[in-house]
Structure formats: structure tokens, C-alpha cells
Amino acid sequence: MSITLEHRIKITNERASRMKENDTFFYLKSVEELNGARAQIDGREMIVFASYNYLGLISHPKVREAAKRAIDKYGTGAAGVRFLAGTTDAHIELEKKIAQFKNTEDALTFSSGYVTNLAAITTLCQRGDLVIMDKLDHASIIDGCLLSGANHRSFLHNNMPSLENILAQSENYQHKLIVVDAVYSMDGDIANLPEISHLAKKYNALLMVDEAHSIGVIGKTGHGIEEHFGLENAVDIHMGTLSKTIPSIGGYLAGKKDLINFLKLTARPFIFSASLPPVAVAAAKACFEVIENEPELIEQLQKNINQFRDGLQKMGYDTGYSETAIVPIMVGEEERTLELCKKVNEDGIFICPILFPAVPKGTNRLRAHVLASHTSEDIEQALQIFEQAGKSLGII
Ligand SMILES: *Cc1c(COP(=O)(O)O)cnc(C)c1O
Predict the structure, then answer these.
(1) Regions of the chain with pLDDT less than 50
(2) Do residues 209 and 182 make contact, with C-beta atoms less than 8 angstroms apart?
(3) Is 316 left (phi over 0), alpha (psi -120 to 50) or beta?
(4) CB atoms within 10 A of CB 272
(5) What is the number of structural domains in the chain?
(6) In a mutational test of the pocket of ligand 1, which residue from 244, 245, 249 has the highest number of ligand atoms less than 8 Å from its CB?
């Protein structure tokens, strides 16, 4: 028998109330002002380690300018679905830019990254097909599988024998789709693309990669996972969001012309949901241009990542297999995770805890996002705060 709705409401609200009483509810904070790596939260200035604004593009003058121009030209919304009256020249230009940036034939945008994954998987897979996922894939990929009606299996995280084992047992499926995150959103490690792509080809599966946290972060010039590994044509379906390094809203799929056209004509989340506001689209396009014109931002981000992660590791913190701007600070037990979070927040670090069930049981952690706009002093100050807090709680 399933538990009742009344019970689910009660236990959820009680858990949140308990956390609020203990001053350990770190969610839904109201950010009053965001200036690069600093923010005003509850009237206090804090160093931000909780934002996806990896390259600091939120406040980039070229991006703001593009958004203002779009408001003047189009107003606030497209007032329609893309398929009917909601496509503007700004949408077409952004999609061209994404295709060029990702070195693909064509691209299509959707109203969020979450919806993009739903659209891709529910349109490309149906009952009788198989979706193969990494165990740590993003929730939107799992939800896409469930909604598609296809069978789905997951392999152990970034474990290639486990992936091959599933592929070898799945020869009977005519259509197989492998979906992985390029950079894992809770762990900051990078998918083993060379091997995954090799296995996809060997077993005749399509490969889709979610680049939410890799665009603008990995690859020498920020073009993502293929650039990082020096590969071309390793991925069939490139997915990304316009909500992280690209601080706007939306998501995209990029790939072969026929495939993108098929999505345009049949993806239900594309056809039955309103178009992105042109202002969001114009801002996103400007961001891709800034990434290409200012590669020094990516270099700065990489420097900051190394300073922060190496500093934490030297103190004895466990940062898992992170190689990117996402640096998990592993604690384990929930209560200790919340205590650490409380201490560092009191000392001026804005960072959030990631708890079960968002991550596997017993792997509770704080998740830090390093930004290009952190100064070396910001990072040094944060490291000192983490050192003090970690020592006083016996975590390091
Ligand atoms: C954030 C994220 C998404 C969802 O993107 P939104 O634009 O926030 O809807 C999808 N996949 C991954 C891996 C993500 O980290």
C-alpha cells in the first residue's frame, strides 16, 4: 500500500520545519544583489559558491546590451509557440550560433534544460526501445525515460565494463540510446567520452551528451566535452542548457539536420509550449559570442578551480573525482553536512548542501561552484573559512 498524500505532506513539511528551527534550511534564499562573486543575501554580503554563473556573464556589458536591444525591438515575449507565431529572427540566429559553436549541422532551442531532455528522449525513444543511462545522470534524463515508455537501464557511474555489459545483453533492441552527462552535476567529474563513444559505435547505439555544466567550462576554449578530449563526431545528439554558464533560460539540442528537423516537427514539448522570450534568446547568443571572443575567462576559471580544489585537498577535504568548476565537499552524514554548511554560511560563504535523495544515501555534501569572477583573495578567504570550520567539526 502506498503512503497517503496527507502523510507525505506532513513528513516533508516537518523535515523542512526541523531544519528551519536548527537554522539549517539553506534553500530558497532571496538573493538581493549579485555582483560577480559577491551577493547580498538577507542583508549580508557573502562570497558566492552556489551560482552557476561560471564565467561571470550575468553582468557582462555585451550581454546586458544585447538584452536591452532585444527588449526595445521585441518587447517582453514572443506570445506564441515556436511552431505557429512564436519564432522570431532572434530564435533563428541563436540556433545558427549554437550549431556553429557545437560544430553541428543544426540546432533547436526549448524552454528549459529540463524540458530539452524530456523532448529529446520522448521524441527519439518509444515503447520497445532501450535507453541506457549513467546511474548519476540528471533527474530530467530519468524523467524523460519514464515519460517515453521505453525500457531503461543504468550502468555504474562512469564504469565502462558496466556499460558494455548492458550493451552486450541488449542486442535484441533495434533502437538503443545512451545518455550521459558530460560533467556530472553533483560530482564535477567528466564522462569517459572516448570509451563511451567507442562502445556506442561498436554496439550500434545513438549517443546523447548533456553539456549543462561543460559549456564554457571544459575544453581549452570552452566548447565542451569533445574539445576537452580532442574528439570530433563522437556525439550524435548534443544537449545543453542556456541557464548555467549561459545565464539566460532555455536548452538546446544540436546535431544532424534531419534529426533536428524531425524534432522540430514532432517533439511535443516544442510544439505545445510557448517560445522563449526574444530577450532571453538574444542574451544567450551574446554569451556564446563572449565565450568565443574572451577565452581568457576560461583560463581564469581553470586557475581558480585549481586553487580552490588543491587548497581543500591539502587541508584533507575529500573532493571526489572533481575536475571541473563543480567541487563537491564530501561529508557523509546529513547532520554534519548541515553543521558545516551553517558554520561556513555564518562566516560569509553562500553555499548549499546537497542531501539524499538528490545524491546517494550517505554521500551528503556541500557543492561548491568555482567562478571566473572569484579573485584569488576570495578563494583564499573561503579556504580559511573552510579550514576553520572543518577542523572545529572534526571533518578534516
Ligand atoms: C541543470 C541541469 C539540467 C536542467 O537545466 P535547466 O535549464 O535548469 O532546466 C539538465 N541537465 C543537467 C546535467 C543539469 O545540470
Answers:
(1) none
(2) yes
(3) left
(4) 9
(5) 2
(6) 244
Three-state secondary structure call for residue 10: helix
> Domain end: 268, 293, 318, which one?
293
* 360 within a domain of the structure (yes/no): yes
Look-up of cell digits 545524491: 359
Residues 328, 253 within the same domain: no
pLDDT of res. 31: 85
Residue 213 a catalytic site member? yes
Do 188 and 159 touch, CB atoms closer than 8 A?
Answer: no
- From 293, 324, 347, the end of a domain falls on 293
Does residue 24 sit in the same domain as residue 155?
no
Residues 110-120 have pLDDT tens digits of: 999 999 999 99
Whole-number pLDDT of residue 1:
65
Predicted TM-score (pTM) above 0.85: yes
Radius of gyration of the chain (CA): 21
The answer to whether the peptide bond before residue 357 is cis (omega within 30 degrees of 0) is yes
Exactly one of 244, 285, 369, 374 is catalytic; which is it? Answer: 244
Question: Which pLDDT score, from 0 to 100, does residue 35 have?
Answer: 74
**Same-domain status, 73 and 152:** yes
| Predicted local confidence at residue 132, as pLDDT | 98
* Total residue length of the chain: 396
Domain ranges, residue 363: 19-48+295-392
Residue nearest to atom 8 of ligand 1 (CA): 113
Pocket of ligand 1 (CB under 6 A): 112-114, 117, 138, 140, 181, 185, 210, 212-213, 241, 243, 251
